[in-house]
Structures are given as C-alpha cells and as structure tokens.
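User: I'm putting together notes for a lab meeting next week and I want to include a structural view of one of the chains we've been expressing. I don't have a solved structure, so I'd like a prediction I can at least talk through. The sequence is below, exactly as it appears in our construct file.
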Amino acid sequence: MSLSGCDGCLEAIGYWVQVRSGDDEPKSEFCLFGGVPEWKHEVLEKIAEADPDEYLGNLYASDWIYDPTHQEPDREVRLLALGPLPTLSSQPL
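Assistant: Thanks for the context. Below is the predicted structure for the 93-residue chain, given as structure tokens.
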C-alpha cells in the first residue's frame, strides 16, 4: 500500500513519521493528510508479528528511508500508518 492509498481509508486521518540518526532513539511525529506528502509513493507493507511498541501500534510501515541532511548525514525516516491517533490535551491553550 502506498501512503496515498492510506489517505483513502475512511479511518485514517494521518500517518506517523519516525526519524532516527545513528544510534539515537527514533523521534515520532504525527502528520495529517492534506497538502502534498513528501513520500506519497513510498510503499508501506503490512506488519507481521512484531513488537507493537516498535511500530507505535500501526498496521503498516515502510522500510527505513535514507534521508540525510547537512546536520544529520546518517538520518533515516520511516512511515507508519493505520494505527492509533496521538493523544490530544483537553486543557485550553
């Protein structure tokens, strides 16, 4: 399934992006569908039996994508889809 295919799923409003650099723990960010996603054609595969914490409880994941920057030459990105939404604070801003 491509990321744009996930956009067509009724229950999906966005996707997770994980970024890691070297041995650092991945940082995770939730992105809403809309606009032009950078990785709309990246293939996400159904996750077989794996540690759900590793994939944040999502059903589909891409491989790690080499995406270097000047400050992080070994930066990699992974896309995760069809999983739980991030928790939102109910406190007023």
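A couple of points you could mention at the meeting. The first helix runs from residue 3 to 7. The chain has a mean pLDDT of 86.

User: Perfect, that's what I needed.
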